[in-house]
Amino acid sequence: MLSGCTGRDTLEETDANAPVTVEDIRTTAETSRAENAGMTSALTGRRILPPASFKANDPDNSRNLSTKRIEHSYGVAKNSMPHQISVDNQKYFEATGYKAVCYDTKSSEKVLYLTFDCGWENGYTSKCLDVLKEKKVPAAFFCTLDHIESTPDLIARMINEGHIVGNHSANHADFTEISRQKMADELLECDNYLRKNFGYATSFFRFPEGAYNENSLELIDSMGYTSVFWSCAYADWDVNAAKGGDYAFETVTARLHPGAIILLHSVSPDNAEALGRIIDFARQNGYEFKALTEYKF
Prior knowledge:
16% strand; 9 helices; globular; single chain; three-stranded parallel β-sheet; TIM Barrel; alpha/beta
């Protein structure tokens, strides 16, 4: 897999954006009681966040937003330029007004955004985190609920070391096949687990397998999330087809371009081996790594 109105206001919290629904069950009194009780996560030391709730607007899609399945494609970037497919994708996102991004067209600088998809653990995520810590590079890890539940220490480390833990849905569902309320429930189940167990919330979402349509884009936007796609990636998810760190390095660095959102999979031994060299190469060529929270919408 290649994975990446009425709504939520923004609640500012340490090291994370915590979007809030109009129907969010949190109240000032509830928040105050949680603070006074000193409820904190044993995993992160953060104050536990009360659960969020969301009722999908227009649950039956009476507006007839398109339900035609789109499988995100990015094209192979060359010569420090995004592929035209990525250019057209970003134009579509900006034209619709939905909060979605596949690469940064706003910055005049040579910026890069490093993201990982995490559906299961293969023993290499901690090595990636070691490299990111050493190189002082921020990243976003888009995690399924299963990955979060099964690797709590890794998730806590991501959070405590300043990375974004993005929402990749509870069950890695196909968002072109499920109802609008089910879409909301997929995000909320993952979000509320993070709130309860890590004291953390996120406003970034990545569609499983990059499959979406206008109907799902609008629903995710209405919940206050940004849908994060990508413009630089390669087939790194198949661990049975690993080709070595040199291949990963050469493939990724050949596809870098200003504003690129890079998608890697942390299950790949090739990525873990090449990550430090990729970062060094990018910096030597004038690129700066930024967090998604720095993207200027």
